[in-house]
Amino acid sequence: MENPWSMPKALEQSWLDTLIDLQLNRYPDSVAIELVQRLRAVMEIPDESAIMLGNGSDELIQAILMAIAGNGRTVLAPAPSFVMYEVLARACRLSYVGVPLRQNFTLDMPAMRRAINTHQPAVIFLASPNNPTGTVYQQAEIEEILNLAPGLVVVDEAYHPFVRPESESVIARLADNPDLIVMRTLSKVGLAGIRLGLIAGHADWISELDKLRLPYNINKLTQATASFALDHWQVFQDQIGEICRERDRVYASLSSIEGIEAWPSDANFILFRISDDGATAIHAQLQARGILIKCLHRAGSAMENCLRVTVGRPVENDAFLKELSELLLR
Ligand SMILES: *Cc1c(COP(=O)(O)O)cnc(C)c1O
User: Fold this and answer.
1) What integer pLDDT is reported at residue 193 of this predicted model?
2) How far away, in angstroms, is 184 Cα from ligand 1 center?
3) Which end of the chain has fewer surrounding CB within 10 Å, N or C?
4) What is the mean pLDDT of each run of 10 residues along the chain (330 residues)?
5) Structural domain containing residue 321
6) For residue 175, is it within any domain?
7) Edge-first strand listing for the sheet containing 197-201
8) Are 201 and 210 within 8 A, CB to CB?
9) Domain tally for the chain?
């Protein structure tokens, strides 16, 4: 789910200029004050909220789970969702409950209410837009979950930059919800290589979580590069706009192919199902033709015969659509 475009050549030299004076013999700023200020401004994080940075948001998911780990504690998330919630929960010896989404991949609110009531989760993860489905959850549903939750609610907005304008971020809800944490990352918007994620939330929570952060977890090259990128944010916004237009074009083409069911996406990828069995074979044949997408198929699961494609450059998307249509005609 990377951005297929690299930094424009015209920016590259001024980016390199910012790296010259970094003094790599010295440790980085352990709290990355300047970078945090820029992130707060660009992402419109309220002044009252505290921010903690991670070496990718994966590291922050790990810190949250280490913080809440304890006997009998449970982590809850809709299913399917981002796999690291479960992987890291289990590594921390936590119980993990996945609450199946409905068939159209919206939240099953009656099932969520029951599961929260039964399991009293110490933390609930809501990825919105969700990976691997590309769906955004409704603001009112997130609000209700916040009201019902006995513990922390983490809304993972890794794909927020790709949502259609009408869906707002829950960042605006931080001030009224002390048990809400919002997570973001620069990985999906063109900076996967520098590993930078962040959480924003109430200072009481963030100061506890920060005790688990390793000193100097955000290196100097990452701090300088991210600050530079945020100072030139419009360039990345333009790339995101282009990716969103391509996403809508690929979605329309995919939906018109006979034998494919595709789901509308608010992210930079599209989930689709092959109506005949054979997702595994299609995946392998695409790979043999030089096109790598994700196979999510597991017999009997909600992802049966499902594949997920990341939106690439127009030529890459065209190649994918052409090869896929050919394979399905055979
Ligand atoms: C990719 C992804 C992440 C992890 O991003 P990093 O910042 O690269 O670690 C977190 N959440 C979701 C839902 C993702 O898809």
Assistant:
1) 98
2) 8
3) C
4) 95 96 97 97 96 98 97 97 98 98 97 98 98 96 97 98 87 95 98 98 98 97 98 96 98 95 97 92 96 95 96 98 93
5) 235-329
6) yes
7) 50-54, 197-201, 180-185, 152-156, 123-127, 74-79, 95-100
8) no
9) 2
pTM for the full predicted model: 0.97
Q: Residue 168 is encoded by which pair of tokens?
A: 């707002």
Residue 197 beta carbon below 6 angstroms from any ligand 1 atom? yes
Give residue 276 CA to ligand 1 midpoint distance, Å: 31
Residues 227 and 282 in one domain: no
CA angle 295, 262, 164 (to 5 degrees): 110
CA 176 – CA 146 distance, rounded (Å): 11
Are 184 and 308 found together in one domain? no
Q: Which atom of ligand 1 is nearest to the CA of 196?
A: 7
Q: 96: which 2 tokens? A: 């993990």
At CB < 8 A and 24+ separation, what contacts does 73-77 make?
73/122, 74/119, 74/120, 74/121, 74/122, 75/121, 75/122, 75/123, 75/124, 75/125, 76/115, 76/116, 76/119, 76/121, 76/123, 76/124, 76/125, 77/124, 77/125, 77/126, 77/127
The reply to whether 214 and 242 lie within a common domain is no
Q: Could you say which of 231, 246, 281 is where a domain stops?
A: 231
Greatest alpha-carbon pair distance for the chain in Å reads 60
Q: Scanning the structure block, which residue is given the tokens 């997920």?
A: 308
Whether residue 146 lies inside any domain: the answer is yes
- Asked whether residue 16 falls in the same domain as residue 131, the answer is yes
In terms of Cβ atoms closer than 10 Å to its own Cβ (0-12, 13-18, 19+), residue 273 is middle
Q: What is the pLDDT, as a whole number, of residue 69? A: 96
Q: Mutation test of ligand 1: which of 2, 59, 86, 131 has the most ligand atoms closer than 8 Å to its C-beta?
A: 131
Looking at the fold, whether 216 and 301 belong to one and the same domain comes out as no
The verdict on 245 and 222 lying in the same domain is no
Of 150, 83, 148, 156, the residue nearest 109 (C-alpha): 148
Q: Domain of 306: which CATH number?
A: 3.90.1150.10
